[in-house]
Amino acid sequence: MTTTNDQPQRDAEQYHLENVLQRISINIAELDERLTAYADDIQTQKEYLWNSRDEMDHIEKISARESIQQAVMTGDNALTRRHRLEKLKDSPYFGRFDFTRHGRQEPIYIGVHHFRDDMAGENRVYDWRAPIASLFYDYETGPAVYESPEGNVAGEISLKRQFRIKGGAIELMIDSAVHVVDDVLQDELSRASDEGMKNIVATIQRDQNAIIRNDEANALIIQGVAGSGKTSIALHRIAYLLYRFKDTLTSKDILIISPNRVFANYISNVLPELGEETVNEIGMEDLANELLEGTYRFETFFEQTTALLEKNDDVMKARLRFKVSPAFLTQLDRYAAHVEANRFVAEDLWIARRLVPAWLLEEVFRKHRHLPTNERLKQVSWEIERKIGNQYNYDLEREERKELKAAVKKMLQQTTLRETYKGFYDWIEQPEMFKTASRGRLEYADVFPLIYLKIRLEGVQSSWRNVKHLLIDEMQDYTPVQYAVIGRLFSCKKTILGDAYQSVNPYSASKAEEIRQVLRQALCVTLNKSYRSSIEIAHFAQRIAYNPDFEAIERHGEPPSVERYRSRKDELAAITDMARVFSQSDHNTLGIVCKTQKQARKVFDALDGEFKRLQLLSEHSAAFGQGIVVCTAHMAKGLEFDRVVVPDASEKNYTTDMERNLLYVACTRAMHRLTLTYIGQPSTFITGENAHSAVDADQVNALHQ
Ligand SMILES: Nc1ncnc2c1ncn2[C@@H]1O[C@H](COP(=O)(O)OP(=O)(O)OP(=O)(O)O)[C@@H](O)[C@H]1O
């Protein structure tokens, strides 16, 4: 790898950049002229329609309106193109490679958007998603081949160059012989955090590129270590699919299931940055509410996790464990079949002195299995009435119709969905496995099994049935039953991603393999390289949850510090000092990540009043900004901060497996600095026999060299 200090080369690139910027400005000016002409044309057409409305017939009016609509659409397209060009003005491209095919060498510039210079009839910048752009991510200099719609195109790459261009000036320019230059990546990763998640188009790695461009897998499951870029890749994949299938896929066809609104907000600017509209997003609880049509109140996942942490109730854990086992789903399926077979007890029926045999009633009832129960009964009565009409040439009187309806209704074992669900636990002779949460609500662990039963017995209405691509983040926090519901609800393609090591609630979790068993036809891929944290932080986190396949990017920073205090008061005073130091630094975010909401509230109260940009996140929060963010590990999942402080990293506070996971999530949120504080004894996960002391930090380092 060489940094291009070669002045003539830099001058040539500067000249090229200025030329591209000039061409962008010329194209924008031309678009502006066209936009003015479109606006005038639309205005004229509207005036004509208005002035001539009395002389025009219906057909003429429709055609005039269509013509206006057409002009508006053309104008909109021109406006979108203008917006894109405007964005390119700041940074038109980030990469170049020289590609020789059929003896002809051409420099190819790659940017976030395509720039076709319409006036000169030339492609000046290729969209990073274009087939030819894959060469940039997949090859070093030398022979290379890419797949185009017309077939494979082979050639030779003779130069690879990376740029960082800002405000129309080249800030960084590096030539590289390796696939994507480490220096540029290092430079990107060393920066302070942004508002929200950023795009990574300039430094997508080869294995990441393969996942982004996989357009065949029906369900793609990405298991990746903390900070491996799963969320980034999933969003870039969505942008890629929108580009690749632009005729059949729009952002309205995509749905993201995300863990909470803070996370949804955090990732929401990536797609617009990539030139796509934001896509629909929903949380599991909202989805459940919609499927149950708001008829049942239930505790939230956050409440379930909090209860587990605060009560450490073994009986509750046993209930949760039971409901994530594969056997549970099988039993639920059997029960659904049993209920279906026994809920309608038909008898021969005499209506208007005509016989309706029991077998016929049963057959009609069975036929309409996917209707809600009431609808189904109505359908049975209506079909029987029609059959009587056809067979006996007799139309039922009003009273007879009523009699028929009542008789059909009586044949059904009348129970509510909730009673039927509760009956499941009696049926399997484990009634203790069903328990209501506070205020008569359903326990969260019962919500999706209940929905599953509803789907099996009567079907559900979903406003998302037309979704064409579903993205599920933090897959580890959903149970096999949730995946069974998702599998039945969404027949579309799916991208599912997460990390088994980051389950915030191991009693209610799934691993990639378990998800694959439920969804079938799924392709699992693994990402083992972590980009977020400095190598020191990454290796520290490995001591908490060791993964032999883990690989950290070689970016150095300060070693994490574990600090002991004599009292809680001293500890809080030290954390306040850390917040002060952060406020004076050039870092943008400090996450103070606690185990429970109560603990987070205490830390927040200690800091409140002194710091301007201070925020406490709760399950009701919708976003977080730059500054100091106090939250639980549960809420911090998927987020990242320049600096992280983990208060109360004591033996008492972090003991169980669940707490180990939370500690791991908390530490892996840190990009550049990590501090853990405690009083008494430190958690054995970071120092004692429970930490991965068998493989100490040096050994872990050695493993990765
Ligand atoms: N190829 C890349 N180039 C630059 N930055 C990258 C690249 N891949 C990942 N990153 C950065 O690494 C960080 C982690 O990415 P992301 O949040 O997508 O990972 P994740 O696997 O979803 O993490 P986690 O599971 O820990 O929440 C982000 O700052 C992202 O920008």
TrEMBL record:
Gene3D superfamilies: P-loop containing nucleotide triphosphate hydrolases. ATP binds at residues 224-231. SUPFAM superfamilies: P-loop containing nucleoside triphosphate hydrolases. It holds the Pfam family UvrD_C_2. GO terms for molecular function: 3'-5' DNA helicase activity; ATP binding; DNA binding; hydrolase activity. It comes from the Bacteria. GO terms for cellular component: cytosol. Residues 203-534 form the UvrD-like helicase ATP-binding domain. Keywords: ATP-binding, Helicase, Hydrolase, Nucleotide-binding. One of its GO terms (biological process) is recombinational repair. Signal peptide: none annotated. This is Helicase. It comes from Vreelandella rituensis. The lineage of its organism: Bacteria, Pseudomonadati, Pseudomonadota, Gammaproteobacteria, Oceanospirillales.
